[in-house]
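pasting input
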Amino acid sequence: MVLKLDLDGTVHHVTILARRPHLVLSVDGRRHVVEALDEAGDGSRRLTVDGAPVSFARAGSADGAIIRLDGRSFALRRRDAAEASAAGGGANVVRAPMPGTVIVVHKRVGDSVQRGETIVTIESMKLQMKLDAPRDGEIAEIAAREGEGFDKDAVLARLVATAEG
Amino acid sequence: MMTAPDDNPPFRKVLIANRGEIACRIIRTLREMGIASVAIHHPVEARARHVREADQAVEISGETPVAAHLDIAQIVDAARAVGADAIHPGYGFLSENARFARAVAEAGLTFIGPDADTIALMGDKISARQFAADHGVPVAPSVMPTQDLAEFTRRATEIGFPLLIKAAAGGGGKGMSIVRSAEELEGAARLAASEAQRYFGDGRVYAELFVERPRHIEVQVFGDGKGGAIHLFERECSVQRRFQKIIEEAPAANLPAALRDEICASAVRLAAASNYRNAGTVEYILGADGRFFFLEMNTRLQVEHPVTEMITGLDLVRLQIEIAAGRDLPFTQDEVSANGHAIECRICAEDPEHDFLPETGTILHLDAPQAAYLRFENALDRGQRVTADFDPMLAKLVAHGPDRAGATRRSIAALHDLSLLGVKTNIDYLARVLGHPAFAAGELHTGFVIQHKAELTAAEPDEATRDKVLIAAALGLRDFRDLILGVPEPHASIGPWRN
């Protein structure tokens, strides 16, 4: 399994090279011996990488993680698995470009849409904005509810390729 | 630190017309004084920290949460219904609303603040400026709007340069210019007048002294309402973004003692002349030439009051409450002394890399450092949604040190150790500001953030750091972890990997 993680717009690859006697991971081809000192959940954690102790804090999100390490916070997003395995990858989701409120939901689950058709109208920073279908397809999910707020990068709608398409 | 409740508290019950960190901070002092606290909240914040920490809570309604917190009649009714004898307004919301102060008084309750007339006087820019000028507080020299260009040029030359010239009816930078010499003045005035006529249909022009690289210096004052007033030294709040303070400190860096005394004395003069009652802050703009000018007076507790508390060892909320109850100032000017240096960082949900636009999210993890010299003023909970309903300020991190360099070091270390995950914040940015050589040198002015934009931008992490971040993230992802653990062999023992 190659784990693909997006950090600041660049996708990095993490793979398992060995599990025993030590855990060895490859990060973008660089080999690291890793020992986990704490359990692997969220919160303040420690591990060692190539023998050096590393303290960090972690919070998992639906599609990635936030890591605070050495006085800096980093937001990472998965670029593999669910999102990448669907045909068209990231083009199947309509994401919020910034936090705001849903004004109008124009489509319903099951509707066929063509690329460029408006799916939702949102309001952010007092400006209204239309979010369009990134490709032809069928609406698989509408997560947006009129009047509700959302965070930046929230998935507001998902598309699937139409059966005949 | 808990102290025994006062033997004779000035009130029995106080309603706090506010929320968030300041409501929690006021509750703390009320508890120390043996006074019952009452919180107010909109339905969306029913489980908020200030609601849980108060002795009693009242739900108020409104179309938006902010509208509820601005509903004077509802809040005064709530205070009467619970039998409160006073209302503390905190900062923001209704704290500088003269109608609110009047409504509280008319309901037979004590407003922990100045009287309504003083709030109105200081709340109006023009009347406040005039009052200050009348009492010997320096105001920036200006030429009042006129269409007579010869008269305008003569009076403007008297003020000196540089001058800011603008359309009296203006806005948006139209017809505005900075003039640095008498030779430029006439042409600039003519141009401004013609642009003013063209854009606004009003050819009158206005000029005031332009202060280059201004510093924001403010003085904490206390008045007893009977003409007695003292100061608790100054604060510097020059590090600002989007015209709002993000780092405040006390005392101000590199301020000559004589100039400090002069600024503080003028603030006391203003407070005494207005028979000021309550905590107040007189704000000034200070030029590189040492000239300072009155900006405005805030007639309430200031966001950054903890830096003053840390250098003086005083509790400003307690003083506000005692004075509101009619007690005298418990000490004289000579009895107030300052010790060391304190810095406050405002932790905001915002993106410093994108013009400091507000961010939203959910607080997934919160771990704040603790030390005797630190205050982390907040009302945050894990799982709490950070929405656009309220101000983006999440918390204040305040550090005290024996001197400015010590307070700076402690602040940077505390920001480093502060872990607040789930919403983008300015924590790392604030650490970069404090670590900047110009900050260390005290070379501050209100354009600091813009001047040093390039150096204050986050550097790319090095490869070693990035790899550690990626490993830390990968190990937190369930399916990746399961692969390491060898699931579907769930009980396979791989030493520390089993959990």
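fyi The radius of gyration of chain B is 26 Å.
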